[in-house]
Amino acid sequence: MGRPNAGASGSSASSDIQIHIQDDRINAPPNDQPSGSSDGPGVPGGIPLISSPLSPRSSASQTPASAPKWPSPAPVTRSRGFSLRRAAFAMNLSRSDQNIPEPIPQQKPSVDEEMLEESGDKRGGEAQDTIFSSSDRESSNDGKQPTSSPVVQRKETWSPKKHVSKLASTFTQVIKIITRTKDIPPSKDGRHIDLNSSSHEDPIDERTGKPFIGNTITSSRYNIYNFLPRQLIFQFSRVSNFYFLCIAVLQLTGFSTTGTYSTLVPLMAFVSIAMAKEGFDDWRRHVLDRVENRNTVEVLRRGPGQEDEWLEVKWSEVKVGDIVKLGRDDAVPADLVLIYSDGPNGMAYIDTASLDGESNLKAKQASPMLRKVCRDEKDLSRCQAHIVVEDPNIDLYNFDGRITIGDETLPLTGNEVIYRGSVLRNTICVFGMVINSGEECKIRMNAMKNPKAKAPSMQKIVNQVVVIIASFVMILTGLNNAAYGVWKSKKENKATYLMGASVGRGELFASSFVMFSTMIPLSLYISLEIVKVGQMYIMGDIEMYDAETDTPMEPRTNTINEELGQISHVFSDKTGTLTENIMRFRKMSVAGMAWLHDLDLKKDDVVEKIQTGQTSVPTAKSRVFGHAKQISDLGPLVASETRDSAFRGRRSQLSPTATQTSTSQYELPSKRESTTEELVAYLQRRSDSPFVKKARFFLLAIALCHTALPETQEDGEIDYQAMSPDELALVRAARDLGFIVVDRPSQSITIVSKDGDKQTRETYEVLDVVEFSSKRKRMSIIIRFPDGKICLFCKGADSTIIPRLKATTGAVQKDAEIRKSMTAKRRSEAQEELRRQSEDRPRNSLNRPSISRTRSQVGRPSFVSRRSTADGRASIEFFGRVLHDSPRPSMVSRRSSNFGNLNIDHSVASDDAATLVATLQHIHDFATEGLRTLMYGHRYLGDEEYQTWKKLFHEASTSLVNRQEMIDQASEILERDLDLTGATAIEDELQKGVPETIDKLRRAGMKVWMLTGDKRETAINIGHSCKLITSYSEVIVLDHEKNNVGEAIAAALQDIHQGDVAHSVVVVDGQTLSDIEANPDLAASFFELVMAANSVICCRASPTQKAFLVKTIRTKVKKSVTLAIGDSANDIAMIQEAHVGIGISGKEGMQAARTSDYSIGQFRFLQRLLLVHGRWNYVRTGKYILGTFWKEMMFFLTQAIYQGYNGFTGTSLYEYWSGSVINVIFCALCIIFLGMFEQDLQASTLLAVPELYRRGQHNGAFNMWKYAWWNFMALTDAVVIYYFVNLSYGMAKFNDVFVDSSDLFAFGQLAFAICVVVINTKLLFLEMHNHTIITFIGWFCGIGGWWLWNLIINQVYDPATSFYGVKHGFVDRFGKSSLWWLTLIVGAAAVLLWEVTVSAIRIAWWPDEVDVFQELERDPVWKRRFEGIARGESGWDGRGEEEEGEDVRGRL
């Protein structure tokens, strides 16, 4: 059910609608009426909601007309998020004033709130929530207002779910009573905190009657109280452990033939080891928590001299009510109310990237009353106020409170509050008072409080196998009992040697069941834990070490190693994960020409060459723009091609090795393009052409149109402080291009411009500034030039500036024509891609393929075939892609730079219309490359026009009502009829290797989603940059403001299902997501769309929304395995929600890495972690499990076959001590080494062909069919072993062929020995692909341990403990029999020959992709080929194979 529109009241709806809504609310299950925790989707105390887990905002239906109504306390203009605590806060305020609830009058939003909304801190929209309290219904039944609602009196139908919910609720209440856990009720009207530095009493939380909680945070999963019960439940939820617990109990009854404690003691040991491992992993999380809790901050406390002074205390010792002092670049230790800032106009600039992912700094300012009484540090002692704030909640985007000083009260909003997880920037000193601490901070409340223990998906199949084996054991036991009954009736009475002895049916069943129960190995999980620990340390790959930050890959758990090889969906944060959060000025368009700004690229290239020894440090300094630059080569450094390779024969040419100082996607170019360095050199030589005038004026506009402040560094260089990294990049670019802002008082800007050796210092008067906002999407500055002229400069998004250009230019029409042309081009490319996908489908061969060691002669039906290209090169096709045997000649010629040959078209520069068309085309090209574009316009003003406007603007700026709206209206008067100045393009610098990594992940069958709190435009730009969005992608934008979300979803689904879309990307924002989730029908269509789309970009998403999306895909998409990767605190929730959580130890801190399952230093390491180590771990674990069940099945099926020869009495073929230690001594290393060290394919092959990763997604290495096949082989092996031993040794002895040395022990040990040899040989040599010294060590230890065991028991075995002739049996009796040894050798050889024959037939007739590529790896040519591709795409020097890699990348 959707939300009511803004302004809708309860009385406006019809009674019928109200009755249905009331019915929904009354008939909801009890668990839909949340109570207790304040951060849940309902307000404790009984506020029934229809809540959306997508965001802290909840929507409620309207009440019946007869019930009291509570209009929303939130202003109408607010629509991004909604605080449930704030609702209770407002309602309780009203209740405190009057007994009978009355509607709370709708208040107009404050100016600060409007400014916050305009700047993007609140989402736009017209939707409004209305929340109702259950106390309203109670008041109607207390005798004051009797109700006659027919719905309430209607008899409810019986619902099983309802009773189950009641039972669960009752159980929860019982647990709370036992553990003495109490739900914290909401406060009456918020938490009251006094700002008084002289008071040293701890404030009391009125909800609990105790002091507020401390500032300690905990991200670990367990504590000393819940570790044991939670782990016991987790361990015995494994079917195998529970199965053996039942066996252990059965043994304790005395019916066991294998001992009383032989199962219980090892089981407890194995479970204890597994629990100790989990405890150690969680202890490491506690250690990392301790690191953060021990950070220090300055707090105003009473010192030893009984005077207030600043003391350095740990974060964990910070309390609510404390006054803390922050310096520049300090992290915020708790949620604070800002008291004082020494920034301009009392502003403090806050970096909230860890909270919402936005790269722009937020301007915070203390309340006006606090600014009056607290002007510096000395005033803190006189600053006293009473502050009331809302109870802790998860809403990051809204805040309600009030501050009272004396008799004056003002509201507190998010503009005056700083949250934990933020960082202070560009501000020297800030004072703040703590209002929320520890787990009650906003960022901590958005994290998952009780993350569940993660279990691998493969464990479900293992549990199924265990159930199958347990069922088989029961059937086998039953059949054995039935067979004994038949044998008893026919032969037992005739067997005189039994002397009337018989076995009871109950005793036989128990003993047989215990004997066969060992088909499920007791060591299954503990050996698997050992295997995973080994895998964990092997994953410490040097190739995943980040030298810049000294960060290795660090696994924080080993439970889910194999999940890394089965990922289907990747959810990635943007800021700090995909991007470096560094903006670089990259391109600009002026006077109809585009220019590449590449000074940083050339500088980084020189540094790289020096570091790699490719060149020496240049001694001469090239003087560029007045700055000393060490540049060894002024060759052409132009942006690389960024068009997709599916339609163009080239891909972006990256440097062989990536620099350490820049990770720009723009590297040393391969095509000719003009650079800004050449532009400045040209401007220095000429000064009379229209082009020169326009270019210099545009550079001046860049230097003037901003709000950045210059500051002189210690080395004398000038740098800048700016709220936005985009502005910082622009003003730095102006500095590099010769227009240096050296001073900026409040009303002027001083610029030093350089023209060769000549410097000019000019001061420009700043008359007014209309600041940028997300609603306006532009900023303007009015400048008085030194010659007295007044000029308006306006910069903003092209969609905003184009309609404001002079109408005579026809800018809007020309832009529409260009967009239409680009749309047609995109559709043409999409059709070409669809055609290519159709042609590249795998070709099926009708003939049986053959595999040979000869190069390029590998065939495989349905996915591999030989091909030859038009240029005569040999190749093979796999997965619909072509891999060539020889490199294709490079099609790109490298041209040298020539400053004198700039192709400047002065006719275009002189023609405004031609300049506009060229600039618009450049802007679209820049945007396609993923750059953030800005358009500049200017307009000269007359003095009279300006003075008239100034009066209007002053009135708007000082208005107390609708200030922002009046400012917007005033700015519209001047921001029109603009002349085009130019356009800029800024690169949001990606981390090194991000586009290549995403491309490989997509080729590997993974869907990559980007979830960010940043703006939509920024997210789409990054989507283009990192290749989530290709040049032919169909971008589907869902926007609630357009009121066509349902239609857009339906149209997109139709196009995708019809096959008309080559590549689709869905873009949705957080508010639209909330609206979608509130409508079940729309939500179903939406999730159908995102599952069908190739990629999804979710912008303006809160941490809760990120986690909900991950959870939805994890639960709704069958057999999906999700991975979430992020670097900051706002990513913790989705990292903990996903199957696999990856944390990046980046610039935003260690919050995400600390709570993750694995941490890496850069996003690019994800490809090696998943494609190589993830796949290896999956294959290793699959082979370990299959091998474990195979050896147990083979070993004990010989036991089962023997039962037919002992009257089905449960007599064991094997001496039971030997049978008990087989998995500990003889067959332990072989299966553990297989699970730890197996590498079915080399790393270079897996990186070169990411499609091989899909084996894990399709459960290709371990599934029920694989298990059935291995069981079949175990059965045939057991039959061969038993009957070969029986016929070759047993029957021969009975015929007295050799010296009599035969007894049951000799017969059993012979079969046992063959099993040990076969198991070790098959697992270590036939199944393990990479043979090393470890392989031979495991083989010799396993088989040697078997013979050593026989020698030991030959001497120390007590004959009285068993009827087997163990004592002196091996050395003195059957060990001397040549037949015994001959049978052993021939029998083992026969079984291994059978295994090899079956494997050879399978590979020859039914090979899979692993068999094909293993054969290719044996060919030195193809092996070098794979290595070259892997090196080339990883950014390493291919030693002459760069063109090879380029050709393959164009085909793969």
Word description of this protein:
The protein is an alpha+beta fold and 1452 residues long. The chain contains 46 helices and 42 strands. Strands 18-42-41-40-19-36-39-38-37 form a 9-stranded mixed sheet, with helices on both faces. A hairpin with a 5-residue loop joins strand 31 and strand 32 (874-878). Helix 24 packs antiparallel against helix 25 (963-974) and helix 39 (1264-1294) runs antiparallel to helix 40. The longest helix has 38 residues, at 1165-1202. It is elongated, with a radius of gyration of 37 Å. The relative contact order is 0.09. The model is unreliable at 1-156, 614-661, 842-863, 865-875, 884-900, 1295-1300 and 1433-1452 (pLDDT under 50).
> How many strands?
42
* Order of the strands making up the biggest sheet: 18-42-41-40-19-36-39-38-37
Strand-residue proportion? 15-25%
Radius of gyration: 37 Å
- Secondary structure category: alpha+beta
What overall geometry do the principal axes of the alpha carbons give? elongated
Mean pLDDT rating: 75
